[in-house]
Amino acid sequence: MQLSKRLEKKAREMGAAYFGIADLAFAQRNSITEHEQAVITEFPRAISVGVPLSSSIVDGITAQSDIYAIKNYYFHVYEVTNPRINEITLCLTRIVEDEGYKAVPIPSSHTIDTDKLYGFFSHKMAASLAGLGWIGKSCLLITPDRGPRVRWGTILTDAPLILNEPFSGKSCGGCKLCVEACPARAFTGNPFKPTEAREIRMDAEKCFKYLNDKRKNAVGVPACGLCVNICPFGQKKKQAG
Ligand code: SF4
Ligand code: SF4
Fold first, then answer.
1. DSSP 8-state secondary structure symbol assigned to residue 145
2. Where do the structural domains in the chain lie, given as residue ranges?
3. Could you tell me the distance, in angstroms and rounded to a whole number, from the CA of residue 196 to the centre of ligand 2?
C-alpha cells in the first residue's frame, strides 16, 4: 500500500476522524513565525490529524460558573484527547522513519515561545493547508462539519506523500459569535488572511491571562472553551446528529 494511504489507515484506526497532507510551500511568510519558516525549509510537508471532541462535553461549557462542566472539558481535552493525538503522531512518525524519511511529531498543545505564546509549529495552519478546514475569527481551525470541536496533531516530514489542496470554499462570513462571547475580549473580529500575523486577529496574552486567573480561582484549571462551544459550525453537527 502507498505510504500516504498506510498512514491514513493507521491514523483512522487509532481514532483520527480527519487526515490530510499539507504542502508547506503554501504557507505565507507573514502568517507564520520565523521559527516555522526555518522549519519548513527542512520539512516541506505536514501530515495533519484531527480527533473530534465529545459534543456533549463541549455543549456543557456554556456557563463559566459551572465548575463541573469546565473541569470535565479540561480533562477531556488535555488528559484524554491530546494524549491520544500524541500517540497517533508518534505511531505515524515511526512508520515514516521506517521508510527512510525524516519525521517530527509536534506535541499537542505545548507552548514553546512563552513570550509570544506560539508552539513549535501551528497545527491549525497545517490542517488548513491540508484541506481540512479554515482558520476562523477565533484563530481556531474550523471544520465544515464539526466546527472547532476537533483537536489537532501534526507531523513534519520530507516524505514524498500525496498532497491535498489547501482548504477553500467556506469561511466565517459575517459571523462574530466567538468575538462577542470571549470573556477576555481576545479577538479583534478580523478574518484570517494568510498575509497577516496572528496578532491582527487575536491578543493571545488576554486569553492566557484569563485562563491563568481561572487556574488560581475556584475553577482550579486553565480552561474556558466558549469560543469552541459557540461556533455555529460545531452546533450544526449537534443538530444534524
Ligand atoms: S478560550 Fe475563552 S478567553 Fe480564551 S479566546 Fe476562547 S473564549 Fe476567549
Ligand atoms: S463563531 Fe463564527 S466567527 Fe467565530 S470561528 Fe465560528 S464561524 Fe467564525
1. T
2. 3-240
3. 18
